[in-house]
Amino acid sequence: MIAAAHIARAQGCGGANLAQTRPSPHLTAIVKRFWRHIETIPAFRAVLIALGVLLMAASPIVGPIPGPGGVIVFAAGLTLVLKYSGWAKRLYVRLKRKHPKKGEWADWGLRRRSALRRHARRKAVSAEQQLADD
Predict the structure, then answer these.
(1) CB burial class (10 A; 0-12, 13-18, 19+) of residue 110?
(2) Model pTM?
(3) What is the 3-state composition of the chain as percent helix, strand, coil, each rounded to the nearest 5?
(4) Residue 9 backbone class (left: φ over 0; alpha: ψ -120 to 50; beta: rest)
């Protein structure tokens, strides 16, 4: 009888399982606001950049492990460095201008919104050109 009461209390109102509950939107907004604030602290940004460099340096070590571990570790490190480092962003833009196809692959891998906008714009321009040619 007591165990049943504990189970009912753990499941909460309406019998929902605790593993299936979602965080409240208010809590999510607080976490997002906190993260936006902490990202502006230069020391924290430097730590994230160092972590990204460490992950990229560790990828050859993790590479021989079965599975795509090295690629995922390198991509995570590259993402951190590109997000929080100005010089890395400038270098990345220079690389993309010099090698557009490689830049497209990197954009696809990083799932960048700007790449999706450029792709949609390119599609619209090519569709307009086809209509003008016909």
Answers:
(1) middle
(2) 0.58
(3) 85, 0, 15
(4) alpha
Would you say 77 and 56 are in contact if contact means Cβ atoms under 8 Å apart? yes
Integer angstrom CA distances of residue 121 from 88, 103, 113, 118, 127: 26, 17, 12, 5, 10
Closest CA to 82 of 115, 34, 60: 115
Tell me how far apart the alpha carbons of residues 71 and 52 are, in angstroms, rounded to a whole number: 13
d(CA 120, CA 114): 10
The helices-and-strands tally (H runs, E runs) of the chain is: 7, 0
CA distance 107 to 99: 12
Q: Could you give the CA distance from residue 10 to residue 107 in angstroms, rounded to a whole number?
A: 44
Report how far residue 73's alpha carbon sits from residue 79's, in angstroms, rounded to the nearest whole number.
10
**pLDDT tens digits for range 92-125:** 889 888 988 777 777 776 667 777 788 888 888 8
Distance from C-alpha of 105 to C-alpha of 26, rounded to nearest angstrom: 37
Q: Tell me if 77 sits within 8 A of 59, measured CB to CB.
A: yes
